[in-house]
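Posting for a labmate who doesn't have an account.
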Amino acid sequence: MKTERTRFKSISQTDLPQGRNGKHKQIVMQILSDLEQLAAGEALKIPLDQLPDTKENIRSALNRATRQRGLSVATSSDEAYLYAWTPETPQDDAGH
């Protein structure tokens, strides 16, 4: 029988939070929702000054979220905007 006390508190595993709710979840979910509403050939134009973090961190969070969902999303940026779009599926050119 152990007599040492743990340094940290413990909880039941059934009480653990499920899923990751990172600090970028809200903006990433909004971007994904907006992407679903775009017509083919359109891209989102997101002002960098409206992002809650750097474009690099938002782009990374978006990349993680799309990989988890098996989605393909492309991004680009300039001094003022982050652009995001769903790339068209390339045609199979095998044998041509």
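Reply:
Got it, the structure tokens are right above this. The mean pLDDT is 86.
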